[in-house]
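Friendly challenge for the regulars: who can give me the structure tokens for this chain first? No prize, just bragging rights.
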Amino acid sequence: MCGVVAIYAPHGGIEPTAMQDAMAALHHRGPDFQDSWIAPSGTAMLGHTLLSITQLGGGRQPITSADGRVAVSVNGEFYDFEPIVDDLTAKGYRFKTGSDSELPLHLYDWAGPGFLHQLRGEFAFVLWDDRNRQLFAARDRFGICPLYYAWHGGRLHLASEIKALFAAGVPAVWDSEAVYLQHHGVLLPGRTLFEGVHQVPPGHCLIASNATATLRRYWDIDFARSDDQTAPLSDAEAVERVRDRLVEAIRLRIPSSGARYGCYLSGGLDSSTVLGVVTHLAGREVPTFTIAFDDPTYDESAVAKQTAAAMGARLYELKVTQGDLADHFADTVFHCEGLLGNGGSVAKFLLSRLSHGEGFRAMITGEGADEVFGGYEEMFEAPDAWTTDPRLAIVKRVMGGKVPVWLAAGALMADRTNALLADGLKDRFADVEPLRVLFNHLDIEGQVAGRAFIDQSMYVWDKTVMANFLLRTLGDGVERAHSIEGRLPLLDHVLADTATDLPATVRIRPGRNKHLLREAARPFVTEQVYSGPKLPFLAPPSPQDGTAPFLSMLFDIVSGKAMDAVPFYDRKAVLRAVETIPTLPARERLGAERLVIRVASACVLQDRFAPAAA
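First reply, four minutes later:
Bragging rights claimed.
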């Protein structure tokens, strides 16, 4: 993965220092080389910071056309692209770099913006066409690679991270409504915590010309409709087809010879499947990294050790303590640029630091299977007793009278959340219904209506929690902070399309989450993993004795100077919430700590970016 920056100035007048400052802010994403290109018309400038995976110095960007009037800057990887290269070569195109990143340049010239459906992988790119004075940017289907944009001073700025936009001169200003919504569990597609700073949504492209920008969707998760629940395949055929796509997706993400790569491993099915297939394909020992917590309820390292041993993998184990979580919380928030909810993001941040320190640049990871195959308990139907809150009425109307656990839990926590918010914020958005706002931003008629309940739940989760939170706080943000490229085969869109074409009853069985994936993965995992439960990756809450460094760190942050400048919270209420955490049972401590972690995250963002109040 690399860092991408672009500035589009319809009337010219780009300042090169703005580009230089933005690229400097992305040095961690691409420490090997950086360069920029300005269009002959002077109305656009592209920048790139390079992380070389297969060879240092290879793949330098931006890449330009033969006449120097079209250029592209790419973050990510395109897979299975060789047949496309052969086809374009036969059409007369000449590839001068040997890098997969050159692909959009020629596809755009041949087919225009419609070429996106041919791309497979994790990517975000910006292309400038100086012939037609048009900027074309796109983000991969699930949103694995981030791409942010903002208009300022009549110029459109784009970058792989928000901090690069700020470095280029975009002002940092809180988006109070976005903060309010996120504290109520609503993460809107394309929204950030900062006013005027947006994301190109997953599966979308952005086209800018004549000082305007337009978003277009080119792909979406398309679960099978309920009126088409007859499986076109037998169970055995479905398993075999998904297994073939699974192996293919993982094979494509194994770097070519010469690159040092490994796998992240927990005690669960997803990462164990990835390691098992990689080991099978590589035919050798695969370096593997896992996290060990000191609380046995949340520690998966024992199963990870057994899995690694069964597969002959070399295991690097990282022990993460409450003190480690405290020491690196602020840096993790800075790189994720959002509100965290658990120390697991900090642990993954440290695991990526370890893998970088051991000389690795690419890691094949297991994120994403739950979002396609139905892995989280939170995705299933909540009991009736949880769904009486009138705020859930809109959910019931959209989802056939049912409510997913994760949305019901958010409503149950709403009063505790509101107790921490300042009166001014609550008064300002007293009439806002967070869940109605959420559903107004989704394609309910096209992608939710007419689906099985579990698929409706997964769709809403995928477009919000996964795209706007999990892929950043457990993926790109914490990995790229240490110049690690994460590759996510379980979010390969060909694999996902194969699975979602099948009825929910084939993918998921009562009492057995991820049934289809379990059967597809069975030849590659141990019996212990195959039969094991879903284990959510969470750092443990602070111990009940109240002496944990992490809890002390939270108290120090929310009682510090940054809290004075954050306009969203009732300081006294937050401090009381911190003080009561040790008195709560373990499960309640986790939830109560989540609320305070969000507040502390906002304080860190205030300290690092100094956003003004809206």
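The longest strand covers residues 70-78. The two ends are 33 Å apart (CA to CA). Your move, everyone else.
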